[in-house]
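for the recovery benchmark. tokens below, seq after
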């Protein structure tokens, strides 16, 4: 019986994928995902993924959400998108399970930069803002009052550009902060007491997401802690959240925004020992959290990753040894991961090799892979592997093109070289 039956909504965002990575191996958590019909990555990593109407179709979405909650006995929803946070915040009274969201008034403050700066102007350093063209001091930075990430932001450098700025309630025009920008991952308990803060440098940013990030200096960490304690106390933050501040170019760090959710790059904190998603579940249940942090240096470098949808099915894998499982005297860890995946899925694995090693069993023992195989087939150089493949619903993995062609032509099964193994990997976990 799982203590936490968690719905990640939506599951295919960077935030949702980070929640998946955080919770998928927790023994007391069963994960579920929901998202609209727009194709996304959730179906690649969640075993239990459902398509429901968009939040723009309010009534249909709420109805499907209620059904999903009831059918799967969902205990918690973790929102993984600012739009969904706003939706769940607005209709939280209609949703029949616990939502990992702070008080609705706090979300309103966090969603508006004007309200955020107004709330903290006497407590923290905030950017100087301007309400009209006459009092503005160039350069300016203009952003939506309730925008997400870097969407709709621009720098104003001249009077001509300034004349096109439409001052009003929907935008914030502030001084241009030209120094370093930081994100600060935080964790608070159920009573709003800060338990953890970690400032990280946003060295390389794409579409509002930190692609390369690492720990800020001790000086910045100290200031970040002071900011975090004030914010958490004032807003009674619960679970994982983050804020951003930026140097004004003269050594003064000024608050940019506060987000009451898990950060997409909080994986850096997870790598150091802070599982933001799991600790958030505990915090919203009022349970005490303890932290254990590894103080080693960690840099996160992110990129696109390939995952595949395929109609390929098989119940047996024939796999070569030399230059396939063992390459340049090293284990091919990607292929080994696939072979263990086969073990989990009760797919038979047969080693078929023309190895020249005198002690073939000793060779397998040397690399600690002897127990991976259901069967061992040792061939002489002149023998054809196709003559020893007896299963029709099988695949064949070998680095040799000529042997793949031979097996494909004679046995009619699909063949793969080591570079193609990523197609076969299933990242849905348990």
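predicted aa per position
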């Amino acid at each position: 019986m799982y203590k936490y039956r968690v719905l990640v909504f939506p599951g295919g965002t960077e935030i949702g994928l980070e929640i998946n990575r955080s919770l998928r191996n927790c023994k007391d958590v069963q994960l579920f995902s929901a998202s609209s019909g727009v194709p996304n990555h959730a179906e690649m990593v969640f075993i239990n993924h459902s398509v429901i109407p968009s939040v723009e179709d309010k009534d249909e979405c709420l109805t499907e959400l209620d059904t999903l909650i009831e059918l799967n006995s969902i205990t918690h929803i973790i929102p993984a998108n600012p739009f969904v946070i706003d939706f769940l915040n607005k209709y939280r009274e209609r949703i029949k399970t616990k939502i990992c969201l702070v008080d609705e008034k706090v979300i309103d403050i966090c969603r508006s930069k004007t309200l955020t700066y107004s709330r903290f102007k006497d407590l923290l350093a905030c950017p100087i803002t301007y309400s009209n063209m006459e009092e503005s001091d160039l350069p300016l930075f203009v952003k939506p009052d309730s925008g997400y990430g870097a969407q709709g932001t621009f720098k104003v450098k001249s009077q001509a550009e300034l004349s096109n700025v439409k001052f009003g309630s929907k935008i914030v025009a502030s001084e241009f902060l030209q120094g370093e920008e930081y994100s600060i991952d935080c964790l608070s308990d159920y009573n709003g007491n800060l338990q953890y803060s970690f400032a990280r440098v946003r060295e390389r940013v794409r579409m509002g997401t930190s692609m390369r990030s690492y720990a800020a200096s001790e000086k910045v960490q100290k200031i970040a802690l002071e900011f975090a304690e004030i914010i958490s106390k004032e807003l009674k933050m619960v679970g994982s959240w983050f804020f951003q501040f930026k140097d004004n170019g003269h050594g003064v760090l000024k608050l940019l925004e506060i987000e009451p959710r898990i950060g997409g790059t909080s994986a850096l904190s997870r790598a150091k020992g802070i599982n933001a998603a799991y600790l958030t579940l505990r915090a919203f249940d009022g349970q005490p959290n303890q932290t254990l942090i590894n103080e080693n240096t960690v840099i996160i470098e992110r990129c696109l990753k390939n995952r595949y949808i395929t109609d390929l099915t098989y119940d047996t894998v024939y796999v070569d040894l030399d230059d396939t499982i063992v390459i340049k005297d090293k284990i091919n860890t990607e292929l080994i991961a696939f072979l263990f995946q086969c073990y989990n899925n009760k797919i038979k694995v047969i080693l078929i090799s023309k190895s020249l090693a005198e002690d073939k069993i000793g060779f397998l023992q040397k690399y600690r892979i002897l127990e991976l195989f259901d069967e061992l087939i040792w061939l002489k150089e002149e023998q054809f592997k196709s003559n020893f493949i007896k299963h029709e619903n099988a695949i064949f993995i070998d680095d040799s093109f000529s042997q793949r062609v031979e097996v494909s032509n004679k046995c009619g099964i699909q063949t793969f070289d080591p570079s193609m193994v990523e197609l076969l990997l299933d990242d849905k976990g348990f």
